[in-house]
Here is the input.
Amino acid sequence: MKHVYFTSIAAMVFACNFGLAQTWWPQNSNTSSDLNEIFYVSNNVGWTFGDSTDILGGYASGVELKSVNQGFTYNKVDMGSPIYQIMGSYFHNTSIGFAVGRNKLSGNGLIISTVDGGASWTEFSPLPERLADIHFSDVNNGWTVGRNDFVMRTTDGGTNWVDISTNAGDHLEGVFFTTNTNGYIVGRAGIIISTTDGGNNWNYLNSNSQRDLNAVYFVNDSTGWVVGTAGEILFTNNWGLSWNAQNSGTQEDLNDVSFVNDTTGWAVGTAGTVLKTIDAGANWIPEVSGTTEDITSLTMRNESLGWYCGLNGTIFIYGIDPPNSVQKIDGNLNVQIYPNPTSSSTTISLPDNKEYSFVLSNAQGEAVKVWNTSGNNNVKIDCQTLIQGIYFLQIQDENKMSAVQKIVINK
Here is the structure.
């Protein structure tokens, strides 16, 4: 009977919470510096970069924040060189990555690389132009773009960079390559250029826009979006041969765009603007961002997990519940679960060492784990065999006090 009883509770709780929409939740960045770039290489590990807070007052290094727990904590890392302003980054894995921007004191552009997850950085030779963005199609082939038509390419994993600048006529702000040969660059005054040979030759595309274009994202060789000032969103599904303006519903400047599949994506911008589409941009719906700060950068892992960053140390995570927390559904038993969401395991912190019974059910009310413990007030749950989704845990002690908690598993 206990098994059946919990199944009905879980089904009822799930039915009550099924309509909960994804929400943006604030995270503590431990800085008031403006943050320009955020990049999560996995569901747990990510970096955020920004500006130094006080160049003349002695705080001389750029801001690098790293998290290994979905942003539950961000640790400030000493970048080891003065006055970096990082504007773009790309990580292949938790160890190897690149960042681009400029030296705020000299004004020179810079490319830096790390092989130890950002603990230390190696700077390449100073460059004549400030860099704005960087993208890799694989571990060997990468491109970076910046002011005054400046474009550089590497074909050896970043050991050497070669100038392959265009003649676009203005500053370049965003770059995205779908393969080693097929790529797109956007910039000021409606500039969109493409290549089908890795950048040896460039094609100048008609965007039908004179607005500054800030970011580009493609889900395949032919289908992509560009965002820019005054709410500009452009869409192509024919390799950029034509671009159609989509109605963003805002006049705020849009600074970044990201898609998780060919229909679902987000765009972010000034004054806390967050837009979402689930129909490839036919409709863009504003989301409650939780901030009025300008949002500068966006990274989405899947439909239910992502982050954005912005001015004054702003970082938010996308999820159903506050990150690394537990939503108490029912009961009078005081327990805590951490981490939650989780990808591998989580620990139940119980109030004492009594005898407890546990039933873990999936969102359909089906029990997937049933067990008992005694004499242990910290119980670990192995979640590696469970698929991604929402689960409900019923806990009952020997005095019939109980609790039902929601656990979110992200893979």
About this structure: Residues 2-17 form the longest helix (16 residues).
